[in-house]
Structure formats: C-alpha cells, structure tokens
Specification:
Number of helices: 14
Helix content: 25-40%
CATH class: Alpha Beta
Distance between the termini: 104 Å
Number of domains: 1
Shape: globular
Strand content: 15-25%
Strand order of the largest sheet: 6-5-9-1-10-13-2-14
Structural class: alpha/beta
Largest sheet: 8 strands, mixed
CATH topology: Alkaline Phosphatase, subunit A
Length: about 475
C-alpha cells in the first residue's frame, strides 16, 4: 500500500510539474495583437499630422513604441492587402488584385478589360494564423475579413474564433443591428453582420464598440495561453457614420485651411481611438501587456472621394488616395509596440510593406513556418529594424500591381527603388517618374530628364511582373465593320 501511494504521489508530482512547465513555456511566448483599420490615410491620425482628428491613445502607442514614416500597404485597396498580410506574398503573386465582389466580372465598357482574378484566399495558401495555431496559439479574428466566400471564412484559414467577418467589405450601417441595403440601382442588395441577434437590447450600439467587446472577450478567454488576435475594424470605411454627439463637437472645430473637414469622419477616429485604449487596458488587466506585441496599421490610403456629397478625407501632402498607386493610395500609418524592445518614441524611415508581417510574426514567435510556403514569401522580417530603427533591410525595391479601374486610377503598376518611384499606366503605356525625397507630392514627373533611370526601373518592374505571373489587363478587341 505504501509503495502504491508513493507511485501515485510521483504521478501527481509529475503531472503538476508538467502543468507548471507548460504554463511557464506559455508565459515565455510573445502574444500578438494586430489592429488593421480600414481606409485610414497616412495623415489621418493626429500623430501623423491631422489638425482635426483627435487620437491621443493611438499617438500614445507610438510614443511607447516605434512609428514608421515610410510604411506601405501591399495594395491600394483592401482585399489584396489583407491577403498579403495573411500569407507574406504580394497580391500579384496571389492573383488577388481586387476585392471579391469585383474579381470575377470585370467591366467591359472601358478601354482595357481588367483580368479575372481570385476572389477567395485559396486554402492551399498557408496563413500566419495556421502556423501560430499549429504552434499552440489561440487564434482570434474580429471584424472585417473580405477574403472570400463562407467556404473561405476565418475558421477555414487558421482561426479558432471569429466574429463579424463576411465576404463584404463594409457594413450597411455602423449602428445596431448593422443591417440594411447597399448599392444603387440594380446593384442594391441586403447586408448584415453575422452572429448578431437583432432582438438584443443594444439600441444605438456602434459597431466599433461592439467589435471591441468581442475582442476583449477573446482576450479574457485566451489570457492563459499564447494568442494571436487579428482585430480588423470596419471603421473608417464608408458609410461615414460618426456618433452624433462627437460629430457635432468636431463640426464646431472645423476651420478654413484645414485639410480634414469631415466631422463624422473625425468622430469615427475618436471612437476608434477610445476602443484602442480599451484593448490596451484589457491587456493590462489580464496581466499580458508586458509580453504582447501590438501592430497598428491600415489596409490602404484614405478614401478621398465624396460620401453623401461631402469629401471623406485628404491625404495631403500625398497625392491622390485609395485605389491609386500614387503615395496617397498606398502609404499608411504603422506603429509597432514590442514591450522591452522597441525604444519609446523611436521612428523608422525605412520603407516597409504589409507582406513583411508574415515573416516578422514568424520570427517573433520563434517559428520556422512551412518550408515550401516560405520559399514563395516576398515579405522581409522587420525584427532587426524593430530593435534598431536606423538599420536598413536587405531590400531596396518595393512593387505594386493594380490592373483594374477605380475612381482614382486606371490600370497601373508601380515600383519604388530607394527614393525613386516609377508608375506605368497601361491604357496609354505612359510612365511617370518621381523623386520622393524631394517631391513627396509626386508633382514633378522626371521621366524625360531621367530617361535612363526610368528605363532601368521599368525593366525591373516588367521582370517582377513576369516572375510573379501578375494578371494583366487586355485591350478590347477591335470591332470591324462587315
């Protein structure tokens, strides 16, 4: 009997020791919170230059971490950038260069016919969520997904938990129960946020607040395990619906000479900022803030067109906005906080891009990932840069490809090499060359005076498109009279 008791005691001690060892290992791993804002322009944050929008908590995140001044979205619109974040591959290589709804039925009434491309992120692609989940991470997605039909929703791409994601890119309304119609004419259709009970007592609830509630629930449940939260807010995308009391406040603050003048848009930023503060507070309350890496960024440049007769935003001093491959369409805010590593108030001016976060999170998590997938990854890890912002990556060139039409552009590709930027527009085959160091607003086209450089960059751009097998637009066939 005594020997048996001793044996049981040893088993219990072994189990307790194993549990303690597992808990210690979990507490040594970094957690990740990636906050992806929709359509936030480079100057939309007060810390990036807005003199109307008030974002003190997000600015405070930058004050405690690293702010990037030359951060780029992988595309000038949402779906391709999000696919690049998930996989580390460029939209051109993924063949995902436009949002789902427009991927399979390109317009036929323009000079060029855009290519038919993939509308759903293929399951054979390896996502960062899949790699982290396989390594024992709790993985949660909250908010906008926009990477395909229900058969390609977050639950099929590596996420244990998901709330609020659909194949649509925006809600019908930001107010509970988040249901209504979208579109005009024959294209009107109903939209909704899944998982919402319209009979809940949540009158006047704002979607940004609700998404944060759900994200905080995930953080509470995951606090004892390593976790990855992808918090993908629908704000500040249209519909532009700020809380009325905040919009009224900002309307009284608009002054002549301001670039940002949309009070409802400003109100949406304040609500976003308040909710980022709630997330930061939850990390503190659950005792995981000191081992949680936070990434804050946008999926493309600010939307400069009108909504209900009022201009949404301005990206000045950058040219143009969402959809365009000028700087206003692709340069975005980026803040990274790595506790104990990123120097408070540090700044990196080195060009980085959304696809870089796949290899970055892998390295931070000390994971190798999928060997075959890694061979196709185009992003570069930012870990060394986060430790020393004056360092440069072993990369001088970034590429973009948008073979479609948008309100701000015709089909176009672009390359940035060092501080030089070349755009190729496919309708007329014309090139534009800009010196970003001295001409951030891309006003002075140097293609004639620097033809040698333009030809060199054009050749690099063409070679990259060939290597990635980038989908290309085609000219409409000539209609000959019989």
């Amino acid at each position: 009997m005594k020997a048996r008791f001793s044996s049981v005691a040893h088993i219990v001690a072994f189990l307790i020791g194993s549990i303690c060892s597992a808990n210690a290992e979990n507490h040594s791993k970094l957690n990740f919170v990636v906050i992806m804002v929709d359509d936030m322009g480079w100057t939309d944050l007060s810390g990036y230059g807005s003199n109307l929008h008030k974002t003190p908590h997000i600015d405070g995140l930058a004050a405690n971490g690293m702010k990037f001044t030359n951060a780029y979205a992988s595309a000038s619109i949402c779906t391709p950038t999000r696919a690049a974040f998930m996989t580390g591959k460029s939209p051109a290589k993924l063949k995902m260069t436009i949002w789902h709804e427009a991927s399979g039925n390109p317009p036929q009434n323009r000079q060029l016919i855009p290519p038919v491309v993939k509308g759903s992120l293929p399951h054979e692609e390896v996502t960062i969520a899949e790699i982290l989940r396989e390594a024992g991470y709790r993985t949660g997605h909250v908010g906008k997904w926009h990477l395909g039909l229900a058969s390609h929703y977050p639950e099929t791409q590596g996420f244990d938990y998901s709330f609020g994601g659909t194949f649509w890119g925006a809600p019908a309304t930001f107010y509970f129960p988040y249901r209504g119609t979208w579109g005009t004419g024959k294209n009107i259709h109903p939209r909704y946020i899944p998982g919402i009970d319209p009979n809940e007592p949540r009158e006047n609830e704002h979607l940004t607040d609700r998404l944060t509630d759900e994200a905080m629930g995930f953080l509470e449940n995951a606090k004892n395990d390593p976790f990855f939260l992808y918090l993908s807010y629908y704000t500040v995308h249209t519909p532009i619906e700020g809380k009325p009391e905040l919009a009224e406040k900002y309307q009284g603050q608009v002054r002549d000479g301001m670039e940002h003048k949309n009070a409802h848009y400003a109100a949406m930023h304040e609500t976003l900022d308040d909710n980022v503060a709630r997330i930061l507070g939850k990390l503190e309350d659950t005792g995981v803030a000191d081992r949680t890496v936070i990434v804050f960024t946008s999926d493309n440049g600010g939307f400069i067109n009108d909504y209900k007769g009022e201009k949404v935003t301005s990206n000045v001093p950058l040219r143009s906005g969402k959809g365009s491959l000028y700087e206003g369409g692709i340069r975005v805010p980026l803040i990274v906080y790595w506790p104990g590593v990123t120097k408070p108030g540090s700044q990196s001016d080195h060009p980085v891009i959304t696809a870089d976060f796949y290899p970055t999170l892998l390295e931070l998590a000390k994971l190798k990932g999928n060997e075959n997938h890694n061979k196709e990854v185009e992003g570069h890890s930012l870990v060394d840069l986060l430790k020393a912002p004056k360092l440069s990556l072993d990369r001088r060139t970034l590429y973009w490809h948008y073979p479609h039409y948008y309100q701000t552009t015709t089909p176009v590709s672009a390359i940035r090499h060092d501080n030089w930027k070349l755009l190729e527009f496919f309708e007329e085959g014309n090139l534009e060359l800009y010196d970003l160091e001295n001409d951030l607003g891309e006003e002075n086209n140097l293609v004639e005076s620097r033809k040698d450089l333009a030809d060199l960059l054009h050749a690099k751009l063409q070679n990259w498109r060939a290597e990635t097998k980038a989908p290309m637009p085609r000219f409409k066939p000539l209609m000959l009279n019989k």
